[in-house]
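New to this. Please check this fold:
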Amino acid sequence: MTAWAPASAYALVSHGGNDKQDPSMVTYVVQPHTGPRRLTPLECERLQGFPDGWTTIANGAPQTDAARYAQLGNSVPVPVFEWAARRIVAVEAMRAAA
């Protein structure tokens, strides 16, 4: 093993059935000394590129974690969508210039 590589590292793991409604489908963090734990809604927001607390309130009322997980699981990561949109604009600009 190289000197800079840790002996153990954090990892994201997702498991569950094929049905989107399956409650056993969960993404969790495997930690070196404490074992696996489920991602928090805040961590899911950050992974999807949303601001902290983005899914905390809907229609003026606090949301349950289950509702927040559902919204975040059904969303598209903002940075990925932004990159794709910028590429489409760039290709269209190249076509217009040709």
Observations:
- The CA atoms of residues 8 and 33 lie 9 Å apart.
